[in-house]
Structure formats: structure tokens, C-alpha cells
Amino acid sequence: MLHKLSLYLSQKLVDLGAEKSKLAVYAYGMECLLSTAIILIIQFVAGALLGRVFEVLVFTLFWLPLRIMTGGFHANTHLWCTVISVGLCIVSAVITDYVLMIPNWVV
């Protein structure tokens, strides 16, 4: 579904004057953009529901550049990518209370 939406939006760009020969590039970029936007929206909605918006913001500020620059694990589908990304964010936001309980000398 995300791929079809990306193709549709990319075709609209071409219809508005973008280079037709780069349609596949536009579609790929649009798919990456939409996937990331969906993940961020879900993370912040989940953070708001859990009362952890600040923790989600801090996680995202550090996680997003790492995700973009380092690569790493790639899920097979956008759905799994979303589940893993949101899951990591929520777990990180929830365990902050417990991490703060660790004495400084242990760290």
C-alpha cells in the first residue's frame, strides 16, 4: 500500500513538471519519507498516550540521525520496520524510570 501511494504521489510530481525519467527515484524517496513520517507520528502518539512525550522526543533526536547515518538492521517489510522502531522507542521511554534508579557508580 505504501509503495502504491508513493508511486501515485511521484506521478503527481511528474504531472506537475518533474522529470519523467526519474519517476522511480521520486517513488523511492517518497516511500522512505512516508515510512519515516508514519513511524514518527505513531511514536509521538504512543508517547502522548503513555505520558512520555519528552522521553520519545529525546529518543527520536538521538535515534533518527543514527538510523540515517549508520544503516544497520533492515526489516523485510515496512510493517516490521514500523513495529520494531516504535517498539524500541516505547521500551526506551518506559525504562527511563528504571535506568535512573541505577547508582552512578555502577554506570
- Proportion of residues in helical segments: over 70%
State the major sheet.
none
Beta percentage is under 5%
| Strand segment tally | 0
Cα gyration radius (Å)? 18 Å
What is the terminal separation in angstroms? Answer: 45 Å
* Shape designation: elongated
Spell out the helices and strands N to C.
Answer: HHHHH
Broad structural category: mainly alpha
The residue ranges in which pLDDT falls below 50 over 5 or more consecutive positions are none
Average pLDDT reading: 87
Keywords summarizing the entry:
107 residues; mainly alpha; 0% strand; elongated
Describe this structure in words.
With 107 residues, the chain is an all-alpha fold. 76% of the residues lie in helices and 0% in strands. The protein contains five helices and no strands. Helix 1 packs across helix 2 and helix 2 (23-50) packs antiparallel against helix 3. The radius of gyration is 18 Å and the shape is elongated. The protein starts with a helix and ends in an 8-residue tail after the last helix. The model has no long low-confidence stretch (mean pLDDT 87).
List the helices and strands and how they pair.
Layout: H1 2-15, H2 23-50, H3 53-70, H4 78-94, H5 96-99
In short:
This protein has 107 residues and is an all-alpha fold. The protein has helices at 2-15, 23-50, 53-70, 78-94, 96-99. It contains 5 helices and no strands.
